[in-house]
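anyone seen this seq b4? input:
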Amino acid sequence: MRVDFGRLNWGVFLIALGSVPLAYHEGGIAASTLSDAWRLWPLVIVGIGLAFVLSRTPAFFVSGLIVAATMGLVFGSAVALGPNVGCGSDGSGSRTVSQAGSLGSKSSVELDLQCGSADVTASPDGQWHVDATNTNGSVPQITATSDGLRVGPTGNDWALSRGTDDWHIQLPVESQIDLASTIDLGDAHFNLGRANLSSASFTVNVGSIDLDLTGAQVGHLDIETNLGSARLILDGASDVEGALKTSLGSLDVCVPSELGVRVVFSGSFSSSDFGAAGLVQSANAWQSPNYATAAHTADFTIDTSLGSVKFEQAGGCK
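predicted toks r here
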């Protein structure tokens, strides 16, 4: 049997790229350890050197594996620790802003985080609340109307000197919300239990998102990650459909056993484990055995490029 070493190297790279963010989010690797992963870069030079030394020996493939594994570890660490890249402030000019208000029965919410962290939850009192701190005094602009809320950077320019954000946001569950969020160099956690979202759209660029929809109702869901990681926990008591896309990143989906799932998947240089999660391939889709009989279903199209997709049953999710 002839081994395609090019595909082998891509496989090692993708395994490392997806495993590092997964291990970080599940507490297996400390942030302090990943922040030093860039120091492994000399191994790339070692690998290139070995390519010359071993070029005419049976062990020539080792050099490619070293380079692939090193690049996967370094990029995987960047995916997991996007917000720790730093935004040029020592915290000496820290400033906090707090606001609250009401939304109409049908409203839109836009959250644009640039460098920092955000914790978004359901509000207990029917109002929205924003508590935002920035280490360089560049607090976000909060624009509110009776049917809309936007939280984002002041102005249109993005600069490394703008400081690091720390947001704590609560959204009312009484309103039907169209939610859109962009996370650049950020780490966002959404726990949206009881929320009523007619649509929800998330874009992650060099960062991570942890999205827990347990108890929430979501009509349409879109998630796109670019050099980022996303972890999604679905609700088993409501229907949802949407599109998930990842480029140079990882996507982990936690599925309740009672939820019927159908996935139409396309990918290039990507890894997936639908079969290991109990999904069965049918024509051009993968679906759970209970898809036709489940009270509630999730229908997704998933597109990956140089990324990994992992499905887990609820009992194995953390």
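The radius of gyration is 21 Å. Helices lie at 5-25, 31-34, 42-53, 61-80. kinda curious what u guys think
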